[in-house]
Amino acid sequence: MELTAEQEAILRTVREFVDKDVLPTVAKYDRSDEFPQPLYEQMVEMGLFGITIPEEHGGLGLDLMTYALVVAELSRGWISLSGILNTHFMAAWMIQNFGTEEQKQNLLPLMATAELRAAYSMTEPGAGSDVQSIRTTAKRTEDGGWRIDGQKMWSTNGLRSSIIMLLAVTDASANPRHKGMTAFIVRKEPGVQHQPGLTIPPNLKKLGYKGVETTELVFDDYRVPAYAVLGGEAGIGQGFKYFMAAVELGRVNVAARAVGVARCAFELAIRYAQERQTFGRKIAQHQAIQMKLAQMGTQIRAAELLTFDAARRKASGERADLEAGMAKLYATEAAQFCAIEAMRIHGGYGYSQEYMVERLYRDAPLLILGEGTNEIQQLLIARRLLELHAV
Ligand SMILES: Cc1cc2nc3c(=O)[nH]c(=O)nc-3n(C[C@H](O)[C@H](O)[C@H](O)COP(=O)(O)OP(=O)(O)OC[C@H]3O[C@@H](n4cnc5c(N)ncnc54)[C@H](O)[C@@H]3O)c2cc1C
Q1: Nearest-CA neighbor of 188 among 215, 148, 211, 159?
Q2: Which of 90, 100, 274, 317 has the most C-beta neighbours closer than 10 Å?
Q3: How many Cα atoms are found within 13 Å in the side-chain-facing hemisphere of 121?
Q4: 3-state DSSP assignment of residue 295
Q5: Does the beta carbon of 87 lie inside 6 Å of ligand 1?
Q6: 82, 376, 381, 383: which to mutate for ligand 1, most atoms within 8 A of CB?
Q7: DSSP assignment of 326-357, as one string?
């Protein structure tokens, strides 16, 4: 892949950060499920929160391709770091693409420096894959603002964020339902569990993906001003469309995360295979282990090609829903495969918390579930293929 000097420079910086600061400390944060404040601060310092925000709004103005490369590098260290970044990136992208001029001017510069951090909340206790069945409502109030009621689920960065990009029903009678949905830029106090109209219960306990909080959000008569509607008056009823566009970006991002996890699993496995001896030889000399390494290496190469091709297409403005879906499906299954194969190559030690592959085994499944499960992904891929090959 040909990279510009700027892409090379930022990737080199992130790679050094991962090798020097992330990999040696990740076990500590993972085990204690602690927010990695020093790592986060370094990410802010590197400008990663404004990586795709245009320079005129204080960001680095880099493209989706660069973002995907950075996410793969960060995730080689720890997917939770890309989790801290990703909802913010998606919310910023939505404001940049669908926001009013005032929303862009007021919010993007503060988002570029992470002074404002964003969550992205669409899922509810009763609605994950089936987004059109969400129930959180936003109703107009007499002062022209909005009143929000309902419960959101699985909101990554839900507690520490100051902005929640929220999908809510504004017209329950709309047919189809998605035409009655609107996106809101909800401002809140960061790090506060109880504020008037909004309760954030304790963080959800997860198998992996530790360190970054994932929360419920309980809205009960939470008030937001009229200008909280993404895109202003013209944005009313457009929320579903805006969120789905962001999910497509999210798929490229999840694929990139998967590339990072798979690379880490491979690097650990191929090193261990050349250190561990059984029956008088390095296990790398046993054909059974070689076959695993061959499968892992091949799947990673394919995952990289699919992912960065989808990112390149999307960055150049081409339609890329099919490619993003294929990349997400393939790369995340490859990450899951590589995590378990790396554990097998480590034998019993792979099951020990002393070895990093144990964490990868707990982190990888998130990727096959998030940003549209891989079952849903296959339905979307098939639908598009049938469109393209209609007889
Ligand atoms: C750690 C974590 C972080 C998350 N962060 C966020 C976040 O920041 N913001 C946010 O909005 N959401 C977030 N999510 C939610 C995530 O996107 C959803 O969990 C996911 O979309 C699946 O929804 P669900 O859990 O309700 O599963 P369901 O939709 O209930 O699905 C259950 C099973 O049924 C299958 N299924 C459903 N419908 C079909 C169908 N038509 N055909 C075939 N199979 C089907 C699914 O593939 C799955 O296997 C997060 C989830 C996790 C676990």
Answers
A1: 159
A2: 90
A3: 34
A4: helix
A5: yes
A6: 376
A7: HHHHHHHHHHHHHHHHHHHHTGGGGGSTTSTH
Let me know if 371 is a catalytic residue. yes
* 247-280 burial code (b ≥16 CB/10 A, e <16): bbbbbbbbbbbbbbbbbbbbebbbebbeeeeeee
Q: What is the fold, at CATH topology level, of the domain defined by 5-112?
A: Butyryl-Coa Dehydrogenase, subunit A; domain 1 (1.10.540)
Radius of gyration from C-alpha coordinates of the chain = 21
Quick: pLDDT tens for 361-385.
999 999 999 889 999 999 999 999 9
Contacts of 214 (CB under 8 A, 6+ apart): 154, 155, 156, 158, 203, 204, 206
pLDDT in tens, 321-332: 999 999 999 999
> Does the beta carbon of 375 lie inside 6 Å of ligand 1?
yes
Domain ranges of the chain: 5-112, 118-237, 241-388
Query: Which of 381, 372, 376 lies closest to 323 in space, CA to CA?
Result: 381
CATH architecture classification, 118-237 = Beta Barrel (2.40)
Pocket test for ligand 1, best of 154, 181, 336 (most atoms within 8 A of CB): 154
